[in-house]
Amino acid sequence: MKREDELLKQLMDMTKDTKAGKIRWDVKCQTTEYNDPTSKPQVMEDDILWTVDECYVSYYCEYKGKEFLMITYEMIHTAGDKVKTTNLVFLPPLGIRYFDIHTLLPYAVENSNMLSYQVKALWTMLLDMYKANPSSVALDVSERVLTIED
After folding, report:
1. Domain presence at residue 18
2. CA 137 – CA 139 distance, rounded (Å)
3. In which domain, by residue range, is 28 found?
4. What is the pLDDT of residue 147?
5. Is residue 19 one of the residues assigned to a domain?
6. CB 77 within 8 A of CB 89
7. Tens of pLDDT, residues 84-121
8. CA pair distance 131, 144, nearest whole angstrom
9. Is 149 a domain residue?
10. pTM of the predicted model, to two decimals?
11. 23: which of 18, 64, 88, 109 fits an S-S bond (Cβ 3.0–4.6 Å)?
12. Is 133 helix (H, G, I), strand (E, B) or coil?
């Protein structure tokens, strides 16, 4: 079984166990999405001026007696009502919890639509749990600044 298929199955099982109250998550998020739009970088691609945002999320828990760490990265380009995204998933060693794409790249897992869907489902479920009971998920969301070098 490929690594991404194993992760997909594991996340599906973890989602069920989280719903059953068996897993407590520690989630850290850094995003540029809520920053002042005038401070966000812009890039010209295909004659369209895109505003660029990024979001990192670190998911940590203990599962079946082992520590689990997954970091996701999303780069979001928006131009009016047009949106395009790039989604990456990483399984770094426990000691690497940096929100830095270059540090994380060696730990990338091949992504698929199903894996992206499952990660999004986990994120949504954890946010819903946090809204219903803030003590059910350790959630830390902070601002990030994105600069794009030419």
Report:
1. no
2. 6
3. 3-8+24-143
4. 72
5. no
6. no
7. 999 999 999 998 888 999 999 999 999 999 999 999 99
8. 23
9. no
10. 0.91
11. 18
12. coil
* HSE-up of residue 92 (Cα within 13 Å, Cβ side): 21
Q: How far apart are CA 96 and CA 113, in angstroms?
A: 26
- What pLDDT is stored for residue 145 in this prediction? 82
Q: Which residues contact 102 (CB under 8 A, 6 or more apart)?
A: none
- The 10s digit of each residue's pLDDT in 29-55 is 999 988 998 899 999 998 999 999 999
Contact yes or no for 77/43 (Cβ under 8 A): yes
Per-residue confidence at 149, pLDDT binned at 50, 70, 90?
low
Q: How many angstroms separate the CA atoms of 149 and 68, rounded?
A: 33
Q: How many domains does the chain have?
A: 1
Burial grade of 68 (CB within 10 A; 0-12, 13-18, 19 or more): middle
Contact predicate 79/48, CB 8 Å: yes
* 16 contact partners, CB below 8 Å, separation of at least 6: none
**Nearest residue to 53 via CA among 82, 79, 75:** 75
